[in-house]
Structure formats: C-alpha cells, structure tokens
Amino acid sequence: MRFNLRHHISAIIIVICVMPAGNSMLISHESEIQDSLICETIDFLSFNGSLANQSVHEQVDMGPRTPGSNGSHSLRMYLLDHLRGWDLTFQNHQYKELNITNVEAVYNSGMGNIVVLMAHYDTRQLADSVLSNNESPPDGANDGASGVAALLELGRIIPELGLNHEIRLVFTDAEDQGNLDESKNVTSIPWATGSQRWVENLSQTEIDGISSLIVLDMIGDKDLDFGKTIPANNTLWDITQRLAKLMGLVESETDCDGELGEPVFDISDVNYITDDHVPPHNVGIPVMDIIDIRYGSEEVLSGHWHTENDTIDKVSADSLEKVGKLVELGLRLGMWSGSNSTSNDSNSNSSLSSNDPISDTSIENEENTYRLMIGLFVFLFILISSLAGAWVIFAEKQGEV
Ligand SMILES: [Zn+2]
Predict the structure, then answer these.
(1) Is the pLDDT of residue 348 over 80?
(2) What's the pLDDT score for residue 4?
(3) CA count, 13 A, side-chain hemisphere, 4
C-alpha cells in the first residue's frame, strides 16, 4: 500500500465517470437506527481481540508470506483450517513469475446484499523503507497479519450472528509488492494486483450485488490512529464515525456511557491511499479502507512501515478488538448491507474539506497547467521569432540578388 498524490486527478475523473445517481439506501437505513439501539448492541459484541492477536503470532511464525513462498502456502492451509462452515475458493493467477492466489470464503451464499470484508495476506518481499536497517522480508505483523487475523475472528463469529445477507471474506495475495527494486533479486508488480484480479473475476451481477466492501489493513498498532482514506464511499465513513463515537473511539465525543472518547478515529484527517480498495472502487463498488497509516510515527507511511520493525510486539489485542468490534457492530445492525445503490461520492469536489489532500493536488495540477502554458508560449515565441528572423534574412538575400 502507498500514499499517492499523483493519482488524485485520475481518481477524480474515474469517480465522476462511475458515480451512480440517486439517494443512498445505506443512508436511509442508517438514519432509521437510533443511538439507543446501537448502544444496546455494543453490549453484545463478541469479537475476541486475544484470539485475533494469537492469530497474528501464528501467522508470523509461518515466516514471510511473500507470493509463491512456503509461508504463503502455509497461510492458505491455515485459512482452510480456520474457516470450516464457509465455502472456500482458491483463485490462482500469474503475474510475471509470481504465482498469486486469492482466497475467498462465502457465507449465506445467494442471499443478496453482499458485504465483502477484505485483507491482504501477503507480506512484502523486502523491508525497503528508507528507515530500514535490514532489507530481508519483514514479519508483516501489522502489515499483513493484523487484517487477516481480524477477518478470521469475524469468520468465527459471523455464523452465530444470524445475518440475512451474503458475506464474503476475501484474503488477497500480492497487495504489497509494488515499487520494488528488481536489481535486488525480487519481482515488482503493481500494488493491489491480487485485488485487481479478484475484481476482474466478478460478474456484473456480483458487482451490482455488493452493498459494501471494507478493507482492513494495518489495524493492530498499539497506538491506533485512523483517519479517513479515499477513494471511498462517504456514507460508509459517516457510519464508521457514528459507531466509533458511540464506542468511545472519537476524541472529545461522548460515548454510550456518557464518557469522552479516546483519539482512535478522526475522519476530518483525509488521505489518498493506494490499497486493495481501489480496484473495486474503480468498478463502482462502495468501498472503505480502514488502515492506520501512522505506524510508529506521526508521519504518514513512515516509522515501522516496510521495515524490519513490523514485528509482533508492535501489535495489541486491544487494538484488534476495537476495530473488529466496530465491524461486527455494523454487521449486527445491518449498516454495511443497507443497499447496493450508494453513491461513491468521496472524491466529488463538493465533498472536499479544506484540509483534503486532493485540494493540494488540485493546486499542484493547476500550477503544472500554468507552467505548461508558459512553456508553450515561450516555445511559440521562439518559433515565431526564428521564422521572422529567417524571413528577414531570406528577404535581404532576395534584395541582394
Ligand atoms: Zn505494505
């Protein structure tokens, strides 16, 4: 996953192209739900952070889960073992010399209003952050194992929730192999290749049937700090902010017990992120990427990210439980499955806040256009001057003759 300013403009164009019209059923469903019901439901949440943390340990013990590796194979067998009662498919693809396998687990197949929960299980081939001291493959305790652990724990409890719609858990391979230096004996392929292949395998009927798709990535950091990531469906983020507030996860906001919340979610902090949510977003699926991009640092995608320090000691059961319970709460209340006719409106200009990085890029783009126009003007000026000069010399020579 990476932070990418340059893609803002193309993302805006794509979003405008795929933006469906009409009001959101998710919004109307959400507005029907009273705070009192949400608070009552919080008391019943059963996501177990300790079990999820145990899974992070077990995944890290398998070694690096780079595409095509033994660790990657062990991870898939582990998923098979832990998702009994689910319908599992292994979807194989090849990209350059890498063997990529996405794993999809389905529950309540064919019941409609599909909710997709997605996490990447691959770890990066190199710890190639500039902050790394050792470029061998990172453990991926947070960047890889944490999202998978949360999905597996949700997979354990979902059969007990009595949901009346289809759920898919999608474990993607090859999310994290972008921008690698191939001179270091690794294979670089585009970010989110696994997710891209998964989307390409969907029929239009399946795409139309997906109410929401939530990506969980880097959610285990002891010091959680979530902002809003884009591209995304605004309604999904609004729902998340509302649930987080009532769970005591929004700073200075009152939770169900009348207590002030802690600073875990702040959707006024907006960042564009390239991750597994982008390919499904590009075909019109309502998406949201819950990812803590400040991992061991106040800086975005710095600290322990893509270093040898992405280790088990940085991950906590408490953090995994906060995120897992928030997703579970939305599932129990039917808030992720309200409808598939939501608007992908996060990138429309009308929804931008003043601190939105898209605004910065728009300015950057305007500056580039301005520079281009000046360049063009200078070029035309030189061209016309040269032609005029040549004409004068030619005319003088004609006169001499
Ligand atoms: Zn990564």
Answers:
(1) no
(2) 55
(3) 17
Burial code (b: 16+ CB inside 10 Å, e: under 16) for 20-30 equals: eeeebbbbebb
Q: Are residues 153 and 178 in the same domain?
A: yes
Q: What distance in angstroms lies between residue 401's CA and the mean position of ligand 1's atoms? A: 74
Same domain, yes or no, for 276 and 367? no
Q: How far is the CA of 366 from the centre of ligand 1 (A)?
A: 31
Residue 9 host element (H or E): helix 8-18
Percent of the chain with pLDDT over 90: 75
The alpha carbon of 52 and the centre of ligand 1 are apart by a number of angstroms equal to 19
Task: Find the CATH number of the domain harbouring 149.
Answer: 3.40.630.10
Average pLDDT of every residue of the chain:
86
Same domain? For 64 and 79 the reply is yes
Whether 121 and 247 share a structural domain: yes
> How close is the Cα of 58 to the center of ligand 1, in Å?
19
306 Cα: distance to centroid of ligand 1 (angstroms): 6
First to last CA, the chain: 71
**Same structural domain, 364 and 224:** no
pLDDT at 6: 46
Contact 137, 313 (CB under 8 A): no
From ligand 1's centre to the CA of 121, what distance in Å?
10
- The pLDDT tens digits for 156-168 are 999 999 999 999 9
CA angle 129, 130, 133 (to 5 degrees): 85
Q: How many domains does the chain have?
A: 2
Q: Which domain holds residue 375?
A: 356-401
Same domain, 173 and 315: yes
Query: Within this chain, do residues 321 and 245 fall inside the same structural domain, yes or no?
Result: yes
